[in-house]
Design a protein that fits this description.
Length: 235
């Protein structure tokens, strides 16, 4: 796997985005794909873009690794099918993320800010690991000062599930029609806020951008998006 290590800045930001791609997401495929494309395009003129690496991983009954790439080159492919091995995906993603962060530190000597964002429209189904395993992985990330964030899609799961699992920041995207806007605007703005902040946003990861989106209106901000230091030592 050809992960990226050629950062041009000493302010390195790493994001792993874990997307539910089970059968229940099949009707949302276009919105997810278009939302990821808009997310990527929103960083075209962002002054810290060269310091940001993003991995987009998917899961259903299995886990699908995504290379860590510069944000302006991130993978936006998306396909659905299968069950919802959420705990297995969280554990596997955590191990992959820590391995990459460790390699970044070894190669650059820089401690990055790290964010793990998980999206799901349902609780685990045919999962090969338990909620105890998933919680342990989230706790390990929290302990290492990784910002852990959970977005609940649709009406079959809520942000309370993420809170019970131990995620630092949670948000509800109740209307599935808002998915494109969420990826293109709210997630983009959250990641930009995180990369500009002197310290990890933690539980505030979603809150600032939600307030901005509500005050500006979804359609306006989405159109604009389409146009446009020691805490990892435990890893």
């Amino acid at each position: 796997m050809a992960n990226f290590y050629g950062f041009s800045s000493d302010k390195i930001n790493i994001f792993l985005i874990l997307l539910d791609s089970s059968n229940s997401m099949s009707g949302d495929s276009n919105n997810v794909s278009n939302g990821l494309k808009a997310f990527k395009e929103s960083f075209n003129d962002f002054y810290l873009a060269n310091s940001i690496a993003v991995s987009v991983c998917r899961f259903n009954g299995n886990f699908f690794y995504g290379e860590f790439r510069p944000v302006k080159e991130m993978d936006t492919r998306y396909a659905t099918g299968g069950a919802t091995a959420l705990n297995y995906a969280i554990v596997t993603a955590q191990n992959y993320l820590f391995s990459y962060v460790h390699e970044v530190v070894e190669r650059t000597g820089i401690i990055p800010k790290v964010t793990f964002v998980c999206f799901s429209d349902g609780e685990p189904y045919n999962d090969r690991m338990s909620s105890r395993d998933g919680k342990a992985a989230i706790e390990k990330m929290n302990y290492s000062r990784v910002t852990t964030a959970f977005a609940a899609f649709g009406g079959e799961i809520s942000s309370q599930y993420g809170k019970d699992m131990g995620f630092m920041a949670t948000v509800d995207v109740t209307k599935r029609s808002d998915l494109l806007n969420f990826l293109a605007v709210e997630l983009s703005n959250s990641c930009k806020e995180q990369s500009q902040s002197l310290k990890t946003l933690g539980s505030s990861f979603f809150s600032r951008t939600v307030e901005k989106s509500e005050s500006q209106g979804y359609s306006q901000t989405t159109a604009q998006a389409l146009e446009d230091n020691s805490w990892i030592n435990e890893i």
